[in-house]
Design a protein that fits this description.
Elements (H helix, E strand, L loop, with lengths): L10 H10 L6 H11 L4 E4 L6 H13 L10 E4 L3 H14 L7 E4 L6 H10 L2 E4 L1 H9 L10 E4 L2 H6 L3 H10 L5 E6 L4 H10 L4 E4 L22 H11 L5 E4 L3 H13 L4 E4 L5 H13 L4 E4 L14 E4 L6 H8 L4
Parallel strand pairs: 1-6, 1-7, 2-4, 2-5, 3-4, 5-6, 8-10, 8-11, 9-10
């Protein structure tokens, strides 16, 4: 079995990996890292929880080789949501602890000032959601001509959320000689068209894409009418020993309603969806991770990519529209 020390990564990065206690790369990391280090374009397909972010963060940190004071951004990571962007930043900061690149997080829901200041001070890595990034570009706060590596993360999710035109615009604005890395849980026909337009002779690294739930998850179905759903939910919560539960709703208004009803019954819970202010979303997620609240009521924003460990129960209050969304939802547990 290959070890991280055999991949040719810089000693400063290996030191961080060693501190985390990791010795062997996951399959997506072992498959993608050597090609990224060679400068190849890569399409990486792997399920959530396979170490996908590190598969591109580690070789990018190696390539950047530390911070350049006042320099224009050299790497752009594009993702669908603020929460995912924040997690990517955390990984770059953690693995880059000893090579110290500067990262700038760009997303909506907060002011522009801090983001502009960080870019001007010299951000090596920009981690952004499409909408706010294009706002900055239209306001001429910075451009993407200096980008050496473009990462499109959770591409299937960005397309599901209607970002395909924004993603294509951003790709056109980047340096033509860049390296492009595309990561997605699934590769649809739309993604293949995106690849044809924006990637040069990419290496395909596909790791065990099988949309099946983990074998450790126990599934239970309750056939029940819409009017009885909430009463059943309360009965289930009363009989379960809950350390941490996520309840998935299809609509934001439904998530808010369930949250309100549960709070009225004295249960410790919070909602998580894209209409909430960024501070509220960050606070809810942190309180849930810290165990201060036991129940998170979420739309599918939380079902893909979010790093939430030790979830004991997942309830699909509304059945998801796609089979793969079911797998992503229950992937929080098991």
């Amino acid at each position: 079995m290959m070890t991280f020390h055999e991949l040719g990564l810089d000693e400063s990065i290996l030191k961080s990996i060693d501190e985390f206690g990791f010795t062997e790369p996951t399959p997506i990391q072992a498959g993608a890292i050597p090609h990224i280090l060679e400068g190849r374009d890569v399409i990486g397909s792997a399920q959530t929880g396979t170490g996908k972010t590190a598969a591109y963060a580690l070789p990018i940190l190696h390539r950047l080789g530390g911070h350049r004071e006042g320099a224009a951004p050299r790497c752009l990571v594009l993702g669908p949501t603020r929460e995912l962007a924040a997690q990517v930043e955390d990984q770059f900061d953690s693995y880059g602890k000893y090579c110290a690149p500067k990262c700038c997080l760009i997303h909506g829901g907060v002011g522009y000032g801090k983001q502009i200041d960080e870019i001007k001070a010299g951000a090596d890595v920009v981690i952004a959601t499409p909408g706010r990034l294009l706002d900055h570009i239209q306001q001429k706060n910075f451009d993407l001509k200096s980008i050496e590596v473009l990462v499109l993360d959770e591409v299937d999710r960005m397309l599901d959320m209607g970002f395909i035109d924004d993603v294509q615009r951003i790709m056109k604005l980047c340096n033509k000689n860049r390296q492009t890395l595309l990561f997605s849980a699934t590769v649809s026909e739309d993604i293949k068209r995106l690849v044809a337009k924006g990637l040069k002779d990419p290496v395909d690294v596909t790791i065990g894409i099988k949309l099946t739930p983990a074998e450790t998850v126990k599934h239970v179905i309750y056939p029940v009418g819409a009017m009885q759903k909430f009463d059943l939910l309360i009965a289930l919560i009363d009989q379960m020993e809950i350390d941490s539960m996520i309840i998935f709703c299809r609509m934001k208004v439904g998530a808010d309603r369930i949250t309100r009803w549960l709070q009225e019954r004295g249960l410790s819970c919070a909602a998580m969806h894209s209409n909430l202010p960024q501070k509220a979303r960050t606070k809810a997620l942190q309180q849930f991770k810290d165990g201060k609240i036991k129940i998170l009521i979420a739309t599918d924003i939380a079902s893909r990519g979010l790093d939430i460990a030790n979830v004991t129960h997942v309830i699909n209050y509304d059945v998801p529209e796609h089979a793969e969304d079911y797998v992503h939802r229950i992937g929080r547990t098991g």
